[in-house]
Amino acid sequence: MAKIIVTFNGLIQQEVSINKSRITIGRRSGNDIVIDHLTVSGQHAAIDTTSNGSFVLDLGSTNGTTVNNQPVKKHLLQNDDVIDIGKYKLRYQQEKNTQGSVISGNIVQTGLPAVATIRVVNGANAGKELILSKPVTTIGNPGIQVVAIAKQADQYVMKHVEGAETPKVNGKPISDPAQILRHGDMIDVAGIHMQITFKY
């Protein structure tokens, strides 16, 4: 069973198991996760769980909702995603089976995805998609910043190929020579914000 760990200034405030189809989050006392802070709306966000996984939805809050430092309206949660609501951080954690595969809803996702897609989320090309059909796909702006996304064994990895500035995944500069990519990761390359999605 998945759970949400709520922290404030690095201190754990509460842990809530996701044991029903909708978990509501907000300042009002009727929410499943109550966060009594002025930066949090009365009914701020919700986590909806289906057979396809758990999704966080912003419910028209005043200050918005982010996942891994990226503003979202609806986002498919992955293990260890961090949701920012006001001044609070909510970490989504999934249980693991004995083989270590992460269980999401009723689906156990293992092996190389059948289809991997990059979708641009900002700028003039927002909404455009690129299917990663080649063993290696290069993305970026030559002379400024370029990355290569490659199929390796049962996963996709991203490597920094060119540019002084380090590309980012989920708002953080990559630190590994080959950064493993997960479904829903946000990639920043040469000022372009993209999201990678997998279909199994």
In short:
InterPro entries: Cell_Proc_Reg/RNA_Proc, FHA_dom, SMAD_FHA_dom_sf. The chain has strands spanning 3-8, 11-17, 22-26, 33-34, 45-50, 53-58, 65-67, 70-72, 74-76, 82-85, 88-93, 103-104, 107-108, 115-120, 129-131, 136-141, 145-152, 155-162, 168-169, 172-173, 179-180, 186-189, 192-199.
What characteristics describe this protein?
mainly beta; 6-stranded antiparallel sheet; RNA-binding; 0% helix; FHA domain-containing protein; 2 domains; Tumour Suppressor Smad4; 23 strands; 200 residues; SMAD_FHA_dom_sf; Cell_Proc_Reg/RNA_Proc
In CATH, what is the class of the largest domain? Mainly Beta
**What global shape is seen?**
elongated
Return the CATH topology of the largest domain: Tumour Suppressor Smad4
| Total DSSP helices | 0
**Tally of domains:** 2
Helix/strand/pairing class, anyone?
Answer: mainly beta
N-to-C SSE series?
A: EEEEEEEEEEEEEEEEEEEEEEE
Q: What distance lies between the first and last C-alpha atoms, to the nearest angstrom?
A: 21 Å
Strand content: over 45%
Largest sheet: 6 strands, antiparallel
Spatial strand arrangement across the major sheet: 2-1-11-10-7-8
The radius of gyration is 18 Å
Per CATH, which architecture of the largest domain? Sandwich
- pLDDT averaged residue by residue: 85
Low-confidence stretches: 97-110
The count of strands amounts to 23
Q: Helical percent range?
A: under 10%
Account of the protein in words:
- The strands form 5 sheets. The protein has a 6-stranded antiparallel β-sheet, with no helix packed on it. Strands 15-14-23-22-19-20 form a 6-stranded antiparallel β-sheet, with no helix packed on it.
- The chain is elongated.
- Helix content is 0%, strand content 52%.
- It folds into 2 domains: 2-94, Tumour Suppressor Smad4 (Sandwich), CATH 2.60.200.20; 115-199, Sandwich (Tumour Suppressor Smad4), CATH 2.60.200.
- Residues 97-110 have low confidence and may be disordered.
- It is mainly β.
- The protein has no helices and 23 strands.
- The protein has strands spanning 3-8, 11-17, 22-26, 33-34, 45-50, 53-58, 65-67, 70-72, 74-76, 82-85, 88-93, 103-104, 107-108, 115-120, 129-131, 136-141, 145-152, 155-162, 168-169, 172-173, 179-180, 186-189, 192-199.
